From TrEMBL:
<keyword id="KW-0519">Myristate</keyword>
<keyword id="KW-0547">Nucleotide-binding</keyword>
<feature type="binding site">
    <location>
        <position position="184"/>
    </location>
    <ligand>
        <name>GTP</name>
    </ligand>
</feature>
<dbReference type="GO" id="GO:0005737">
    <property type="term" value="C:cytoplasm"/>
</dbReference>
<feature type="binding site">
    <location>
        <begin position="111"/>
        <end position="114"/>
    </location>
    <ligand>
        <name>GTP</name>
    </ligand>
</feature>
<keyword id="KW-0807">Transducer</keyword>
<keyword id="KW-0479">Metal-binding</keyword>
<dbReference type="InterPro" id="IPR001019">
    <property type="entry name" value="Gprotein_alpha_su"/>
</dbReference>
<keyword id="KW-0342">GTP-binding</keyword>
<comment type="subunit">
    <text>G proteins are composed of 3 units; alpha, beta and gamma. The alpha chain contains the guanine nucleotide binding site.</text>
</comment>
<feature type="binding site">
    <location>
        <position position="22"/>
    </location>
    <ligand>
        <name>Mg(2+)</name>
    </ligand>
</feature>
<dbReference type="InterPro" id="IPR027417">
    <property type="entry name" value="P-loop_NTPase"/>
</dbReference>
<keyword id="KW-0460">Magnesium</keyword>
<keyword id="KW-0564">Palmitate</keyword>
<dbReference type="GO" id="GO:0031683">
    <property type="term" value="F:G-protein beta/gamma-subunit complex binding"/>
</dbReference>
<protein>
    <submittedName>
        <fullName>Uncharacterized protein</fullName>
    </submittedName>
</protein>
<dbReference type="GO" id="GO:0007191">
    <property type="term" value="P:adenylate cyclase-activating dopamine receptor signaling pathway"/>
</dbReference>
Length: 211
């Protein structure tokens, strides 16, 4: 096999396919600059989410990392009306209405940015822009449907807006939300996570100190 040949270099595609999906709950603990950090990697099974909720300490700085597959924007749900992306929006709303989650910062990683762009460039997927139309300027949508031209930023903003509007519907939520568009081989992913967490903790600390 090619991978056992001398001088073989691991490709980005190899890295993606070598990952193991989360099927239950895994906890990782470590220290960073004398700060104790615990990461709970949780599957979407309700029992695991409930276990995570019950084990959140009162004085912890808690953050939820929600990873969203952007390329699911046009994949129809097998059981319900809408797409798999719509299901993710509804899941997020249920999660944020959880009493524990209301006290958590939210990090949304819009993953598979590369695959999302590929679909936008695919003629066969062009009509699927209908799923993003409510959040896209009419002129931009018309130009895309007729000529296939688009600015990536406008499409990313339209997809993100679906989640922003859903977050606004959550009552009694005053924690910050951070968004990042990424892909599986994003070398700056962890840097983005810790940067957002650090900013949120510093902001909360200042609010507790200043009158």
């Amino acid at each position: 096999m090619e991978v056992f040949q001398e001088g073989y270099k691991v490709s980005d595609n190899d890295k993606v396919h070598s990952r193991n999906p989360t099927v239950d709950m895994h906890t990782y603990r470590f220290k960073l600059n004398d700060t104790r950090i615990e990461i709970c990697d949780v599957d979407q099974i309700v029992d695991y989410l409930r276990h995570w909720s019950f084990n959140c300490g009162e004085h912890y700085h808690n953050f939820i990392l929600l990873v969203v597959s952007m390329s699911d924007y046009n994949i129809k749900h097998e059981e319900y009306e809408g797409t798999l992306l719509d299901e993710c929006v509804e899941y997020m709303k249920v999660l944020l209405n959880n009493k524990v989650a209301q006290n958590c910062g939210l990090l949304i990683f819009f993953n598979k940015k590369d695959r999302f762009k590929e679909k936008l460039q695919d003629l066969e997927c062009r009509d699927d822009i209908a799923y993003l139309m409510p959040h896209l300027a009419p002129q931009k949508a018309k130009e895309y449907l007729s000529k296939g031209k688009f600015e990536e930023k406008h499409m990313l903003d339209a997809l993100c807006k679906k989640f922003v509007d859903a977050i606004k519907e959550v009552k009694n939520r005053d924690k910050n939300t951070y968004c990042r568009f990424t892909c599986a081989i994003d070398s700056k992913m962890m840097e983005g996570i810790f940067g957002a967490i650090k900013e949120s903790i510093l902001e909360e600390s200042l609010l507790n100190i200043l009158p």
